[in-house]
Design brief:
alpha+beta, 6-stranded antiparallel β-sheet, 4 helices, 17% helix, 26% strand, globular
Length: 201
């Protein structure tokens, strides 16, 4: 492998993203894709509640709590990056329009994520997240996210550009902890099974 960075700018020939016709309606809560997820699981971690937005976009609110500090009283940059990554990963749930008309949702993982920290984010802040797909080229999905303070139209405190790569479920089965994989695959709810494998690297 050359070690060269993967470009975050869509190449010539990239197409606009397509929202699946059966995707959740704008405003619908997407729910946790996997209860053990650090980003959206409710037992630990960030506990994000993601909502479908217009087009191929999602929104969420993230409250910076005591356990999310880096410097005293301020959010840790890695935690803010994780919140943006979780919102970006949830975009998979809205994508795709296969010719068969079946659900055929895209499964994608983070290939590259570049974060810009524009303002400090104090503990207790509610960060308003917005993530959206900007272009698709083959298996590559180009997207961006922002985190704003003071409301959905407030100043941008943190932003990210990302490249996600479409994969098959075998990616998770081959690389994940077999005990967790087997438990997730054994769930009788097939939608939950599909969602469990949507955003992990």
């Amino acid at each position: 492998m050359s070690g060269a960075k993967t470009a975050l700018k869509p190449p010539d020939g990239a197409r606009a993203p397509v929202r699946h016709p059966d995707a959740p309606a704008p405003g619908d809560v997407l729910g946790a894709h996997y209860e053990g997820c650090f980003g959206c699981g409710q037992e630990h971690g960030l506990g994000l509640e993601l909502r479908a937005g217009d087009g191929v976009s999602v929104t969420a609110e993230f409250t910076v709590r005591t356990g999310h500090q880096g410097a005293p009283g301020l959010a840790h940059g890695g935690v803010l990056t994780a919140a943006l990554d979780e919102a970006l990963g949830a975009l998979s749930w809205l994508q795709g329009a296969p010719p068969s008309g079946s659900w055929g949702r895209v499964i994608a993982v983070t290939g590259r994520l570049e974060t810009d920290f524009l303002r400090p984010v104090p503990m207790g802040t509610v960060l308003h997240l917005d993530a959206r797909v900007t272009a698709v080229h083959g298996r590559k999905i180009y997207c961006m996210a922002t985190g704003r303070t003071g409301g959905p139209d407030g100043p941008v405190a943190v932003r990210a550009d990302a490249l996600f790569i479409e994969v098959k479920v075998d990616h998770f089965i081959k690389n994940g902890c077999s005990e967790e994989i087997d438990a997730a695959l054994a769930d009788p709810d097939q939608v939950k099974v599909a969602r469990a494998f949507e955003v992990n690297p």
